[in-house]
Design brief:
heterodimer, A: 4 helices
Chain lengths: 121, 339
């Protein structure tokens, strides 16, 4: 239990330090906003349109979906990797994981063949 | 009651000491990085402030503190203020699970304290999970700025980090297979007793795991040759283009501490942690640990000023088409060797 308490301590400490430094800075720093300074930086041009309307490549979503698939599969590998050295079951779990990784490879090969991994079309 | 109180107090003191060390770590590291950059490029680097420029980071810190905190008009103000802290805090939390050695006896009061804050049985999984949270800080910062460069930088950065996180986790699984444990202290103990027991020298798969880990680690902490999110040529400065002053410094702080955490993980997972390679015991284990970590920090800086940057499509090709199939193959080979 104490091990997990320390995580809370550390998160609290880091956030507290961050806010403290920001507060100390607010006592010294100047504050002089005007509309040119507050406009989004665009190489000196007048900004055109809004940036946060979600107009970006669909490829980022595909990468995110692939990541979720692989990350979940990796989590299945962790308990397997811990017990692999148990002498009674090691051959059995190795064969099981061989099949599992073969299925995983089929998924990767499918994404590859469909061109989901190619950034330039 | 009092014993539990003392235990909690010790944890609190350790956390505060570790937190202060981490918070001030970028001071020497920025100086070192600029000095190394200078010497690699045959110039002197910082030289004006203090002898050999050692006070330069303090001058920079004061400058950051006095800078105006600009929040763009169209930005999402809450998320904009929140993002630097979100990217910084998880990196601090990673260090809770990292062991720096076995134990140390405080002189005069003869109290033995362990050189780690938390002895977690799922330490490696915890570190991977928490360091993944840092992606939120980057994508929130990029999106909340409502600037096109920042948005693109944030998207690129998050796509890159999640792509290489897969390869990084595979490399960690390789180590877990060799050590049969997720506890970082057990992983180090499994490697004690000479250089040949280190995971990196577990032939033939050890070096391959290390190369996968190192490349994925470079991409994960956004260092050259994979610092696409901050590509000055095409994106100005990436996700933190709208940030200034202290908030900008927090992103930099997170980046430097992430570099240290990656060095620490490389040492613990592959280079025997605090194990003495000579076996003579003429240096305390913690010194060996820090020497190895220092070597990796130097290596990251050395690479930064030696290699050019990859293109984004090359980055994705390396991650998905080379590292991941190689790790899948390597898992099978490692498993075959173990059983």
């Amino acid at each position: 239990m104490a091990d997990y308490l320390s995580i809370l301590f550390m998160a609290g400490f880091a956030a507290f330090m961050a806010c403290m430094v920001l507060f100390v800075g607010s006592l010294f720093r100047p504050r002089n906003p005007y509309s040119e300074k507050l406009s989004p930086w665009e190489c000196g041009m007048e900004p055109i349109g809004e940036a946060d309307t979600g107009h970006f490549r669909v490829h980022f979503f595909i990468i995110a979906i692939l990541f979720i698939v692989f990350d979940v599969e990796i989590l299945y590998l962790f308990p397997w990797a811990v017990i692999l050295k148990e002498p009674d079951i090691s051959t059995l779990v190795f064969i099981e994981m061989f099949i599992f990784i073969a299925v995983l490879t089929v998924g990767l090969a499918y994404a590859w063949a469909k061109g989901a991994l190619d950034w330039i079309k | 009651m009092t014993e539990a109180f003392i235990e909690v107090a010790i944890i609190f003191v350790k956390v505060v000491v570790l937190g202060f060390i981490l918070f001030s770590l970028p001071l020497p590291l920025t100086w070192l990085e600029r000095k190394i950059a200078g010497h690699i490029q045959v110039r002197l680097g910082p030289f004006r402030v203090g002898p050999h420029g050692v006070l330069q980071p303090f001058a920079d810190m004061v400058k950051m503190l006095f800078k105006e905190d600009v929040i763009p008009e169209q930005a999402d103000r809450l998320l904009f203020r929140f993002a630097p802290i979100v990217s910084m805090v998880p990196i601090f939390m990673v260090f809770v699970a990292i062991p720096f050695g076995e134990s140390w006896t405080i002189p005069y009061i003869n109290k033995e304290v362990t050189l780690y804050v938390a002895d977690m049985n799922v330490g490696l999984l915890y570190i991977l999970a928490i360091s993944g949270v840092a992606v939120y800080g980057i994508i929130l910062g990029g999106w909340a700025s409502n600037s096109k460069y920042a948005l693109l930088g944030g998207l690129r950065s998050s796509a890159q980090m999640i792509s290489y996180e897969v390869a990084l986790t595979f490399a960690c699984i390789g180590v877990v297979m060799l050590a049969s444990s997720l506890n970082l202290i057990d992983i180090v103990r499994a490697q004690t007793g000479g250089v040949t027991n280190w995971n990196v020298f577990y032939l033939p798969v050890g070096p391959v795991w290390f190369v996968i880990f190192f490349i994925a680690g470079l991409a994960e902490i956004n260092r050259i040759p994979f610092d696409l999110p901050e590509d000055e040529g095409t994106l100005a400065a990436g996700f933190h283009v709208e940030y200034s002053g202290i908030r900008f410094a927090y992103f930099m702080l997170a980046e430097y501490i992430a570099m240290v955490s990656m060095s620490v993980l490389a040492v613990i997972l592959f280079f025997g942690g605090w194990d003495d390679p000579t076996g003579l015991g003429w240096l305390p284990p913690i010194v060996w640990f820090l020497l190895k970590v220092g070597f990796f920090v130097y290596l990251f800086m050395w690479i930064r000023f030696t290699l050019p940057r990859y293109r984004y499509d090359q980055l994705m090709t390396i991650g998905w088409k080379i590292l991941i199939p190689l790790s899948l193959l390597n898992i099978l080979v490692t498993g075959w060797m173990i059983i």
